[in-house]
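JOB MANIFEST
job_type = single_chain_structure
chain_count = 1
residues = 313
[input]
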Amino acid sequence: MTPAPLAARLSIPSGPLFFPVTAYGPDGSVDLDTYRLHVRRGVEAGAAAVFACCGTGEFHALTPEEFESCVRAAVEATEGRVPVVAGAGYGTALAVHYARLAERAGADGLLALPPYLVRAPQHGLLRHYRELAAATDLPVVVYQRDNALFTPDTVVELARTDGVIGLKDGQGDLDLMQRIVSAQRTEAPGDFLYFNGLPTAELTQPAYRGLGITLYSSAVFCFAPELALACHRALRTGDKTTTRRLLDGFYRPFAELRAQGHGYAVSLVKAGVRLRGLDVGEVRPPLAEPAEDHVKQLAQLIERGHALLEEGM
């Protein structure tokens, strides 16, 4: 049986969207066996999709050869059970190159990361993503954040672009997102996906659900899938008691801890995976490992989170 198109597979999420970390061995090289195990465990735990080699997966730190190997390993580990979406970024030429590598490795779609360094006008950004979408048969989700921020008119044009199926928001401007959703719904109606892509997205997901945005990435799922699944279920079913208990007792303190260091959105998550018993190695420079005290605080938070789950049983 041929799998349904990516948009259809993502439109009704059965669980959180999983952004695995990339595993490195003691010598700093990519450890594909550990990476496959990390991905497989996430799928078996209930992930709705795997987003390989994206922000949490240190896309910026991988060579093209390592990128292709990791995407292929993720595809192998999922065994078709959930879709695999791969990152693609830098300038247009390199983004196209990574897109073709991902396609060759068997990915189901692309997450188009912001262009490298430059701040471009809206028509330049639109051309960039249109050229990327035209260069591959893989459907594209565009990631809005940092130097890739869009007006509602630009998102309308993206929604009209063949191959572009959605927008992931990592900016957190709810006024802008409401205007984007409204403009696209009015001027380019159709099935266009929206994702909450903020760090620790669970914390803001109640607000995003008010905009009709139900898809979100979960970094916590990497190291505490039980917590991420419980929160996802509570959000989906409208269980406000459980949602508030988890947000107040775990997610807010975790977000505050994450804010204590640059790059903690990746390095602290990777430390969490190691704390749960899977040695995925350290982050590559220019990122750096979190302070020892912060790792201890994370371990305490994970314990607290599981205690909160026990309270709700």
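[summary]
The longest strand covers residues 164-169.
The radius of gyration is 18 Å.
exit_status = 0
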